[in-house]
Specification:
Elements: H1 4-14, E1 23-25, H2 27-33, E2 36-40, H3 51-60, H4 64-69, E3 71-74, H5 78-90, E4 94-98, H6 104-112, E5 116-119, H7 124-138, E6 141-142, H8 149-165, E7 171-175, H9 180-192, E8 197-203, H10 208-214, H11 236-245, E9 248-252, H12 254-267, H13 278-285, H14 287-290, E10 294-298, H15 306-319, E11 323-331, H16 336-346, E12 350-357, E13 367-375, H17 379-391, E14 395-399
Parallel strand pairs: 2-10, 3-4, 3-6, 4-5, 7-8, 7-10, 8-9
Antiparallel strand pairs: 1-2, 11-13, 11-14, 12-13
Length: about 400
């Protein structure tokens, strides 16, 4: 059974090979959530994720014969990069099996760390089956992303670092996919500070561990913005540890995660992927649960596709009322559009897009419907812009 000593030994192996990432208070997020929030910046690791801790600990313990044979892993993301990077550093051959749908940027990055990438199957399960078959055929050591005690021990070093800096934390809030991070951290934290509360967070689209631990039957979705924790099959080793040591498991929605990502970017100037924002999403969704407590959050990863990030930022602007779509109906005569744009400008808003609609409208034939996307300072400002347009003799309303 995994112990604190295993995790301390892992920390010694990792010493000098990974960052002891900053763990600092966020005053602004503390004010927003009502808890005292401390952030552990694992998105600052070289491969931008905590995953390299477990990978490094596993690879460091291989025998000379196993090192010579090489390793294989199945992953569509952070585990792949962690294994590839530390295998390259230690001079070990690494084969990574990825599903065919894996984004090109992740494939390129993994290849960049010297790994041989094999694309196989349409799901992680198909990729895993192929990886196990290749391991047997080529004599490679299979490095599981979470269901391996050496990997779990490596991930647990995050808690050692956090509690060394902040020994009086009340609660740790940790994202859960297969459970490697929370299982390792709970083992370390409960041994060091038995009274500490450990809370796991899953996305409501992938509630496999919540179902396994709580006996619930939440349905599983097909995709999530938090693909790092979009795991359909919880680990056996991790599940047993979670059942014994984790105090509660919470579910958050996609919108909660998006909101948390934008807040971390805007307030902390730090980029996290969906899984990395799950902890903050839980604080935002269940504020009463954490009010007044000293809460440690792990920003567990920062690998995100730039186009997805752009979409999330834009959607966040819409939610905050800083980007709005309004419809204005006016007489279809020269000067109408000029008057509308002047009115919007005088109200202090900026126009992003303008679209005239003549055919697809229920308005009278001599009228035109103008749809605009505008930048504003927030909800109250949108109302002011609409009021100014109505005062100027136009019919204006916000579209949702």
């Amino acid at each position: 059974m995994l112990s604190l000593e295993d995790i301390k030994r892992a920390a010694k192996r990792l010493d000098g090979h990974l960052l002891d990432t900053p763990c600092v208070e966020s005053r602004t997020l503390s004010q927003v959530t009502g808890a005292q929030v401390f952030l552990k910046f694992e998105n600052l690791q070289y491969t931008a994720s905590f995953k390299e801790r477990g990978a490094c600990n596993k690879l460091a313990q291989l025998s000379a014969d196993e090192r010579k044979r090489g390793v294989i892993a199945m992953s569509a993301g952070n585990h792949a990069q962690g294994v590839a990077y530390h295998a390259q550093r230690l001079g070990i051959r690494a084969v990574i099996v990825m599903p065919r749908f894996t984004p090109g940027v992740k494939i390129e990055r993994t290849c960049g760390f010297g790994a041989e990438v094999v694309l196989h199957g349409d799901t992680l399960e198909e990729a895993r089956t192929h990886a196990l078959a290749l391991a047997q055929k080529q004599g490679l050591v299979f490095v599981h992303p979470y269901d391996d005690e050496a990997v779990v021990a490596g991930q647990g070093t995050v808690a050692l670092e956090m509690l060394r800096v902040l020994p009086d934390l009340d609660t740790l809030v940790i994202a859960v996919g297969g459970g490697g991070l929370i299982a390792g951290m709970a083992t370390a934290a409960k041994a060091m500070q038995p009274g500490i509360e450990i809370i796991g967070v899953q996305t409501s689209r992938f509630p496999a561990m919540v179902n396994a631990i709580k006996g619930t039957h939440h349905p599983q979705g097909t995709s999530s913005i938090a693909e790092g924790i979009a795991v359909g099959t919880p680990g056996n080793i991790t599940r047993a540890i979670i059942a014994r040591l984790v105090d509660d498991m919470l579910l958050v929605d996609e919108g909660d995660i998006e909101q948390a990502m934008v807040m971390l970017l805007e307030i902390e100037k730090t980029l996290v992927e969906g899984a990395g924002a799950a902890g903050l999403a839980a604080l935002l969704k269940y504020p009463a649960r954490f009010a007044g407590k000293r809460v440690g959050l792990v920003l567990c990863g920062g690998n995100i596709d730039p186009l997805l990030l752009a979409a999330i930022i834009e959607r966040g602007m819409v939610r905050a009322g800083r980007l709005a779509r309004i419809t204005v109906s006016a007489r279809d005569v020269p000067g109408s559009l000029a008057k509308i744009t002047a009115t919007v400008a005088e109200a202090g808003a900026n126009i992003n897009e303008v679209h005239h609609q003549r055919a697809f409208t229920m308005l009278a034939a001599q009228n035109v419907e103008i749809e605009m996307v505008i930048q504003t300072r927030g909800r109250d400002h949108i109302a002011q812009v609409i009021a100014a347009l109505n005062t100027a003799g136009f019919e204006a309303s916000e579209q949702h």
